[in-house]
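Entry 14. Structure prediction run on the chain below.
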Amino acid sequence: TVAGGGPKGTVGDGGPATGADLTDLAGVAVGPDGRVYVSEAGRIRVVSLADGVISTFAGNGTAGHAGDGLPATTASVYGKSGLATDPSGHVYLAEPDSHRIRRVTGPDPVAPVVTLTSLPRPEGPDREATVAFTVDDPTADVVCSLDGGVGASCASPWRGENLGVGPHTLVVTATDPAGNAGSATATWRVLPSTSSDPTAAAATTWLARELARGDGLLDRAGVPDPGLTTDALLAVTA
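Output returned:
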Protein backbone atom coordinates (compact mmCIF):
# COMPACT_ATOMS: atom_id res chain seq x y z
CA THR A 1 0.00 0.00 0.00
CA VAL A 2 1.38 3.38 -1.03
CA ALA A 3 -1.35 5.53 0.52
CA GLY A 4 -4.60 5.16 2.40
CA GLY A 5 -6.02 2.01 3.89
CA GLY A 6 -7.92 3.68 6.69
CA PRO A 7 -11.51 4.93 6.81
CA LYS A 8 -12.96 7.17 4.12
CA GLY A 9 -11.90 10.76 4.71
CA THR A 10 -9.49 13.57 3.86
CA VAL A 11 -7.23 13.85 6.92
CA GLY A 12 -3.57 12.93 7.14
CA ASP A 13 -1.71 15.63 5.20
CA GLY A 14 1.83 16.07 6.48
CA GLY A 15 2.04 12.54 7.84
CA PRO A 16 2.71 9.03 6.54
CA ALA A 17 0.65 8.35 3.43
CA THR A 18 -0.23 4.87 4.63
CA GLY A 19 -1.94 6.39 7.65
CA ALA A 20 -3.94 8.98 5.70
CA ASP A 21 -7.65 8.82 4.91
CA LEU A 22 -8.65 8.99 1.24
CA THR A 23 -12.06 9.37 -0.35
CA ASP A 24 -13.68 8.77 -3.74
CA LEU A 25 -10.45 7.99 -5.55
CA ALA A 26 -10.61 8.44 -9.31
CA GLY A 27 -7.15 8.72 -10.87
CA VAL A 28 -3.50 8.04 -10.21
CA ALA A 29 -0.30 9.11 -11.97
CA VAL A 30 3.43 8.96 -11.28
CA GLY A 31 5.64 11.99 -11.89
CA PRO A 32 9.16 11.89 -13.37
CA ASP A 33 10.63 12.28 -9.89
CA GLY A 34 8.69 9.29 -8.54
CA ARG A 35 5.96 11.21 -6.75
CA VAL A 36 2.54 9.56 -6.84
CA TYR A 37 -0.51 11.76 -7.51
CA VAL A 38 -4.04 10.66 -6.65
CA SER A 39 -7.30 12.45 -7.40
CA GLU A 40 -10.16 12.38 -4.94
CA ALA A 41 -13.23 14.49 -4.25
CA GLY A 42 -12.28 18.16 -4.46
CA ARG A 43 -8.51 17.76 -4.45
CA ILE A 44 -5.37 16.15 -5.83
CA ARG A 45 -2.97 14.72 -3.28
CA VAL A 46 0.65 13.74 -3.74
CA VAL A 47 2.81 11.14 -2.03
CA SER A 48 6.57 11.61 -1.86
CA LEU A 49 8.19 8.20 -2.07
CA ALA A 50 11.39 9.69 -0.62
CA ASP A 51 9.82 10.03 2.83
CA GLY A 52 6.33 8.55 2.39
CA VAL A 53 4.58 11.81 3.35
CA ILE A 54 1.27 12.78 1.76
CA SER A 55 0.13 16.36 1.11
CA THR A 56 -2.43 18.27 -0.92
CA PHE A 57 -1.07 19.19 -4.34
CA ALA A 58 -4.12 20.95 -5.78
CA GLY A 59 -7.65 21.80 -4.75
CA ASN A 60 -9.22 23.32 -1.66
CA GLY A 61 -11.71 20.53 -1.06
CA THR A 62 -14.56 22.20 -2.94
CA ALA A 63 -15.57 20.77 -6.30
CA GLY A 64 -15.44 23.37 -9.07
CA HIS A 65 -13.24 24.93 -11.71
CA ALA A 66 -12.45 28.35 -10.23
CA GLY A 67 -8.94 29.50 -9.46
CA ASP A 68 -6.98 29.26 -12.69
CA GLY A 69 -3.77 31.28 -12.38
CA LEU A 70 -3.79 31.08 -8.57
CA PRO A 71 -1.83 28.76 -6.26
CA ALA A 72 -3.12 25.26 -6.94
CA THR A 73 -4.07 24.54 -3.34
CA THR A 74 -6.45 27.53 -3.29
CA ALA A 75 -8.27 26.55 -6.50
CA SER A 76 -11.42 24.49 -6.83
CA VAL A 77 -11.07 21.27 -8.78
CA TYR A 78 -13.32 18.41 -9.74
CA GLY A 79 -11.14 15.90 -8.01
CA LYS A 80 -12.82 12.88 -9.59
CA SER A 81 -10.53 13.34 -12.56
CA GLY A 82 -8.20 11.34 -14.70
CA LEU A 83 -4.56 12.29 -14.14
CA ALA A 84 -1.43 12.40 -16.29
CA THR A 85 2.06 13.84 -15.89
CA ASP A 86 4.71 14.99 -18.35
CA PRO A 87 8.53 14.85 -18.23
CA SER A 88 8.66 18.35 -16.71
CA GLY A 89 6.58 17.27 -13.72
CA HIS A 90 3.39 19.11 -14.69
CA VAL A 91 0.15 17.37 -13.73
CA TYR A 92 -2.89 17.33 -16.03
CA LEU A 93 -6.46 16.90 -14.81
CA ALA A 94 -9.25 15.67 -17.09
CA GLU A 95 -12.42 17.09 -15.52
CA PRO A 96 -15.54 15.48 -16.97
CA ASP A 97 -17.91 17.70 -15.00
CA SER A 98 -16.42 20.93 -16.37
CA HIS A 99 -15.51 19.49 -19.78
CA ARG A 100 -11.93 20.73 -19.63
CA ILE A 101 -8.33 19.70 -19.09
CA ARG A 102 -6.39 21.71 -16.54
CA ARG A 103 -2.69 21.79 -15.83
CA VAL A 104 -0.97 22.22 -12.49
CA THR A 105 2.65 23.31 -12.68
CA GLY A 106 4.88 20.68 -11.14
CA PRO A 107 7.86 21.13 -8.83
CA ASP A 108 10.59 23.34 -10.27
CA PRO A 109 13.50 21.00 -11.07
CA VAL A 110 15.86 23.64 -12.47
CA ALA A 111 18.61 25.11 -10.30
CA PRO A 112 19.69 28.74 -10.69
CA VAL A 113 22.79 29.30 -12.82
CA VAL A 114 25.61 31.31 -11.23
CA THR A 115 28.08 32.81 -13.71
CA LEU A 116 31.34 34.42 -12.58
CA THR A 117 31.99 37.50 -14.70
CA SER A 118 35.08 38.99 -13.02
CA LEU A 119 37.78 37.23 -10.99
CA PRO A 120 40.91 38.16 -9.02
CA ARG A 121 44.29 37.49 -10.62
CA PRO A 122 45.18 33.80 -10.23
CA GLU A 123 48.28 34.82 -8.23
CA GLY A 124 49.46 38.13 -6.89
CA PRO A 125 50.32 40.14 -3.78
CA ASP A 126 46.96 41.93 -3.54
CA ARG A 127 45.34 41.48 -0.13
CA GLU A 128 42.00 42.61 -1.56
CA ALA A 129 39.89 40.68 -4.05
CA THR A 130 36.73 41.31 -6.05
CA VAL A 131 34.48 38.67 -7.58
CA ALA A 132 31.58 39.72 -9.80
CA PHE A 133 28.81 37.32 -10.77
CA THR A 134 25.32 37.01 -12.21
CA VAL A 135 22.40 34.74 -11.24
CA ASP A 136 19.76 33.91 -13.83
CA ASP A 137 16.94 33.65 -11.25
CA PRO A 138 16.05 36.97 -9.58
CA THR A 139 14.04 35.15 -6.90
CA ALA A 140 17.04 33.15 -5.67
CA ASP A 141 18.77 33.78 -2.35
CA VAL A 142 22.52 34.23 -2.86
CA VAL A 143 25.14 33.26 -0.26
CA CYS A 144 28.93 33.66 -0.46
CA SER A 145 31.34 31.50 1.52
CA LEU A 146 35.07 32.30 1.76
CA ASP A 147 37.54 29.48 2.40
CA GLY A 148 34.91 27.07 3.70
CA GLY A 149 33.55 29.48 6.28
CA VAL A 150 29.93 30.12 7.16
CA GLY A 151 28.10 31.59 4.19
CA ALA A 152 26.60 35.05 4.29
CA SER A 153 24.06 36.76 2.08
CA CYS A 154 25.86 38.66 -0.66
CA ALA A 155 25.42 40.58 -3.88
CA SER A 156 27.66 41.20 -6.85
CA PRO A 157 30.39 42.28 -6.68
CA TRP A 158 31.70 40.45 -3.61
CA ARG A 159 34.75 42.12 -2.06
CA GLY A 160 37.29 40.66 0.34
CA GLU A 161 39.81 42.67 2.36
CA ASN A 162 42.91 41.91 4.45
CA LEU A 163 43.25 38.46 2.94
CA GLY A 164 46.09 36.33 4.23
CA VAL A 165 48.94 34.95 2.18
CA GLY A 166 48.02 31.63 0.58
CA PRO A 167 45.19 30.07 -1.44
CA HIS A 168 41.61 31.35 -1.23
CA THR A 169 38.30 29.95 -2.43
CA LEU A 170 34.98 31.76 -2.77
CA VAL A 171 31.82 29.73 -3.38
CA VAL A 172 28.76 31.65 -4.60
CA THR A 173 25.54 29.65 -4.11
CA ALA A 174 22.07 30.64 -5.33
CA THR A 175 18.98 28.81 -4.00
CA ASP A 176 15.54 29.29 -5.55
CA PRO A 177 12.22 29.13 -3.65
CA ALA A 178 11.82 25.45 -4.61
CA GLY A 179 15.10 24.61 -2.89
CA ASN A 180 17.15 24.03 -6.04
CA ALA A 181 20.71 25.30 -5.63
CA GLY A 182 23.40 26.22 -8.13
CA SER A 183 26.90 27.45 -7.39
CA ALA A 184 30.16 28.65 -8.89
CA THR A 185 33.64 28.71 -7.37
CA ALA A 186 36.46 31.24 -7.68
CA THR A 187 40.01 30.39 -6.60
CA TRP A 188 43.15 32.50 -6.35
CA ARG A 189 46.36 32.79 -4.32
CA VAL A 190 47.81 35.74 -2.41
CA LEU A 191 51.60 35.83 -2.67
CA PRO A 192 54.02 37.42 -0.18
CA SER A 193 55.01 40.93 -1.13
CA THR A 194 58.08 42.93 -0.06
CA SER A 195 57.56 45.92 -2.31
CA SER A 196 54.25 46.75 -0.65
CA ASP A 197 55.66 46.28 2.89
CA PRO A 198 57.60 49.41 4.03
CA THR A 199 59.42 47.50 6.77
CA ALA A 200 60.50 44.70 4.46
CA ALA A 201 61.49 47.18 1.75
CA ALA A 202 63.67 49.15 4.21
CA ALA A 203 65.33 45.94 5.41
CA THR A 204 66.09 44.93 1.83
CA THR A 205 67.64 48.33 1.11
CA TRP A 206 69.76 48.16 4.28
CA LEU A 207 71.04 44.66 3.47
CA ALA A 208 71.93 45.68 -0.09
CA ARG A 209 73.90 48.66 1.24
CA GLU A 210 75.77 46.54 3.76
CA LEU A 211 76.68 43.93 1.17
CA ALA A 212 77.97 46.68 -1.10
CA ARG A 213 80.38 47.87 1.62
CA GLY A 214 82.41 44.71 1.08
CA ASP A 215 83.97 44.55 4.56
CA GLY A 216 81.94 41.53 5.61
CA LEU A 217 80.53 43.37 8.65
CA LEU A 218 77.07 44.75 9.27
CA ASP A 219 76.47 48.11 10.89
CA ARG A 220 74.63 48.29 14.17
CA ALA A 221 73.52 51.87 14.78
CA GLY A 222 76.04 53.02 12.17
CA VAL A 223 79.03 51.24 13.76
CA PRO A 224 80.47 48.06 12.18
CA ASP A 225 79.76 45.16 14.55
CA PRO A 226 82.18 42.20 14.40
CA GLY A 227 79.41 40.03 15.83
CA LEU A 228 77.28 40.54 12.73
CA THR A 229 78.72 39.32 9.46
CA THR A 230 77.17 39.27 6.02
CA ASP A 231 78.27 35.66 5.58
CA ALA A 232 76.38 34.63 8.72
CA LEU A 233 73.25 36.49 7.65
CA LEU A 234 73.33 35.02 4.16
CA ALA A 235 73.74 31.54 5.64
CA VAL A 236 70.62 32.03 7.78
CA THR A 237 68.50 33.52 5.00
CA ALA A 238 69.63 31.12 2.25
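Residues 59 and 183 are 35 Å apart (CA to CA).
Filed with the rest of this week's runs.
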